[in-house]
Structure formats: C-alpha cells, structure tokens
Specification:
Helix content is 44%, strand content 27%. It is of the alpha+beta class. The chain starts with a helix and ends with a helix.
C-alpha cells in the first residue's frame, strides 16, 4: 500500500489526522511539567556513620574500613568513595547502571547489617540513603522580625513555615538554615556536689530516666481491660530543677541544690547571613516528579498568605534557581522557532519555489508538535535533555 499516493487521492483523512495530532500535541505540551533536568535514577547509595567525639583516624580504622570491606563483596559494585572527618564517615557506593537502584539499596543495607556487631557500640545506627538528584533546593528564603529573637524565629520556621510549605503540592522537604536549637542546660556545681558527697554519675543516672513516655501493658480496672502507660515527663526547666535526686547512699536532694538549670539555646553550629546580618533562613526542595515552576508558584502563593497572617514577619527571597530555568526554557523555545524559520528561508533560497517552501514550512511543526503527545504519554518532562 502506497501511503503517499493514497493520501494524495484522499487528502481529507490525512488532513484531519494531522489536525488531530497537532491539537493533541499542543494539549500534551501544555500539560507537560517543566524541569531543569530529568529525574535520573542512578544506582548510587550513601552510608553515613556517626560517632560523636571520634577522631578521623579512629573513624577510618574502626568504621570506614570495615564498611568498605563489607561493601566490596556486593555484586555490581563499580566504585567506592569514602570521606572521613571528626565523628563522621561517609561511604558512597556507585554501582553499574544496569543494577536496579532498589536492589543496590537492599544489598548495601544487608552488607552494613552483617558487620553492625563489629562496629563500635557507641556508634549511631548508620543512615543508608540512595542518591536523589531531585533533593537539591530550588528556593531559599530568609525570615526576620523586629518582635522576635533568633529562638522565636527558629521555632516559627520549624513549626509555622514548615507546615505551610509542606502543604504545597510538589514540595518534598523544608530545611532550616541558621537559627538556634532549644536546650535545657544543667550546669553542675562541683563544690556543692563535693559537699554532699555525691557524684556526677548519680545526677546523670537520674536525668537519663526523665522524659519517659512508654507503654506499660494492660490491666483490669472496674471489670474492663484498660491500657497503661508509663509517664515520667517534666513540662519546664523549673519543674526539672525541683526534681528530687536519689543518691547512691539513699539520701534525696533537689536538683537545684547542686546544679543551675536554665532553659536556653544550644551552641551555634551554623549561621545564615543576609547582607552581613544574621538571619534565619529555610530552603525549599521539590519532590521527585514535581516541576520546579509549579513548586515555585505554589510556594509564593502560600508565602503571601503567611505574610498576611503575620505582618510583623519579613520574608525575603535569597536564592532563586527557578527563574534561570524559566529563562532557559523560553530561550530554547525561541531558538526552536528561529531554527524553523531559518530552515524555511534556506529552502526558499535554494529551490525558489513557493510550493516546496510551503510544504517545508508545514512539515516542520507537523513533525514536532505531535511528538509532545508521545513524550507526555511516556512520562517525559520538558527539560534540557528533551528539548535538545
């Protein structure tokens, strides 16, 4: 069957087919999400092990090397990268592309679990994660207020801002930058402790049992079975200061007799500066499969509502990785149109026939636009790779 000859003899079905394909392609193009890069799923797994206070040499010999030896036997492993610093060892396992990511993650988890008993007892449970290219921040904001200090701003970001941002469609995570952490500090007075013939171990052992909220089983009460919970919590620093401490010889003292208890903030480990002034910031990270453009639009609408509810808070955009994406997207579309126009001009310049030029001018969009329908059907997005 000669498709070209049939189309020439019966042009109406062909015209209707291409009109339908063009409409479907335009609708699919409008429905496709705009991203900087496609969501790549690489079989790369990271193991993060933490042992506070350990030197890099200790982390290398007692933690990193044992994890490396266990991961070296995993099938499909391509490269191992290790970074050791004070109290932390990060081991990155890169697998061959044909290995499924979930299988690589399970193999690494099993390999670490096999040597868990050989690692130091004080080592925190290793955190095993797969590499996610969608986990990069797309927007960064700073928060300032004339009525709130750093502690209040930090709590405002952790509580109010995080809840509002996570409710936006496409937002995967909200991370605070800078600020402070609340800390109830117990400073023991050595002189008073020595006068009572007590030790710091007595105080530490009693404080370790504070803030307990656990299941206590079940009991029969009034002919019915009731659940029982074990509660040992304090609501404030003053309540903790009034806590009775039982010493090893049986005597009982109040905590504030041997220590100063204060509700304060922890030592700063990071800070955020805007124009040289300390601020509290937060980063917005999109979830996998979401569009940076849609996330930015939803975040800005949510922030406008948040500003209206809290007029004393100033939220400033510090970094924006979405606007350059939109500029690249619009620039790519402009280049596509310019390329099509130049192609038509070249055809006219060499053929000097309006019929051939018209056919070329019509064939270019009719060959490109329906392609977006197939791309949308297969789950592709509009990004640097697909536009190329």
């Amino acid at each position: 069957m000669n498709v070209s000859a049939w189309s020439i003899r019966k042009p109406i079905p062909s015209l209707l087919l291409f009109i339908m394909l063009t409409l479907v392609g335009l609708m699919s193009f409008r429905a496709m999400k705009i991203q900087q890069f496609p969501d790549i799923d690489l079989p790369t797994v990271t193991v993060t092990a933490s042992l506070p206070g350990a030197a890099p040499a200790q982390m290398e010999t007692e933690v990193a090397r044992k994890i490396e030896n266990s991961l070296a036997s995993v099938q499909g492993l391509k490269h191992l990268y290790t970074k050791v610093q004070d109290g932390t060892a990060i081991v990155t396992a890169e697998f061959r592309l044909e290995k499924p990511t979930q299988e690589a993650l399970d193999d690494v988890r099993d390999a670490v679990q096999r040597i868990r008993s050989d690692l130091p007892a004080d080592l925190r449970d290793p955190v095993i994660t797969k590499m996610d290219f969608a986990g990069m921040p797309v927007l960064t904001y700073t928060v300032s207020s004339t009525r709130m200090d750093d502690e209040a701003l930090s709590w405002f970001v952790d509580n109010q801002v995080s809840k509002t941002m996570l409710a936006v469609r496409g937002v995967g995570a909200v991370g605070r930058v800078g600020g402070v952490q609340r800390e109830v500090r117990v400073e023991i007075d050595p002189a008073r402790l020595f006068a009572l013939n007590a030790t710091a171990a007595d105080i530490s052992r009693q404080l370790r049992q504070i803030q307990q909220d656990a299941s206590g089983g079940r009991t029969d009460l009034g002919g019915a079975e009731q659940s029982v919970r074990t509660l040992a919590t304090v609501q404030s620093a003053q309540a903790l200061a009034a806590l009775e401490i039982t010493l090893s010889d049986g005597r009982r003292i109040r905590l504030d007799q041997v220590a100063d208890v204060s509700d304060t903030v922890a030592e700063r480990r990071s800070t955020a500066l805007l124009n040289g002034k300390p601020v509290v910031g937060f980063e917005i990270t999109r979830s996998r499969g979401a569009s940076e453009v849609d996330v930015a639009k939803g975040v800005r609408e949510a922030l406008e509502k948040l500003k209206a509810e809290h007029p004393d808070v100033t939220i400033t955009e510090a970094f924006n990785f979405v606007d350059p994406l939109i500029e690249n997207y619009e620039g790519s579309l402009t280049l596509m149109v310019e390329g099509a126009i130049l192609a038509v001009i070249v055809v006219w310049f060499f053929l000097r026939e309006w019929r051939a030029t018209f056919v070329s001018a019509v064939a270019l969009p009719l060959s490109i636009i329906p392609t977006f329908a197939v791309m949308h059907l297969m789950g592709f997005t509009v990004n640097v790779v697909t536009l190329l």
